[in-house]
Specification:
This is Peroxiredoxin. The protein has helices spanning 40-62, 102-116, 118-123, and strands at 3-9, 12-17, 22-26, 67-78, 86-97, 128-137. The chain contains 3 helices and 6 strands.
Length: 140
């Protein structure tokens, strides 16, 4: 896997993945409160949620669950001293579908977070990673 970061200006950077996709990232600079894009740590958190969501969708589809949407709301706490790594990460999964089995959702999430998701495995080296979920019947 390869990627590239190029400085654009101030604290703005352009990240390009090995597959050719680009994203603007950066942090506040000077007196402005504006950010040009997600910060690097926000991208780590998004990557963790995206990795796990991908697994959960795949596992639930393989178990023939009638899912219509999967969302992950993430919260994280960082250490107070540098390098300010994540110390706590919580993933809240919202699964929307018709007749979705809660036990299968619980198992899919556990398999992802504890076994398959490489991003959550890396984050778990510095942070306590927890998760919960809710299943919503489609149309409610």
């Amino acid at each position: 896997m390869k990627a590239r970061i190029k400085w654009a200006e101030n604290r703005t950077f352009i990240g390009t993945s090995g597959t050719g996709h680009s994203i603007v990232l950066g942090t506040k600079h000077g007196d402005s409160d504006a950010t040009p894009g997600p910060s690097p740590m926000e991208l780590v958190l998004l990557g963790t949620g995206g990795c796990s969501a991908y697994d959960v969708v795949s596992i639930l589809e393989k178990s023939r669950q009638n899912i219509e949407d999967v969302q992950v709301e993430m919260t994280a706490e960082r250490a107070e001293t540098d390098p300010k790594v994540f110390v706590k990460v919580h993933l809240h999964f919202i699964v929307i579908g018709r007749g979705v089995d809660q036990k299968r959702v619980e198992r899919a999430i556990a398999l992802s977070v504890d076994k398959y998701c490489s991003a959550s495995a890396m984050v778990a080296k510095s942070a306590e990673v927890t998760h919960d979920f809710e299943v919503i019947e489609a149309g409610e």
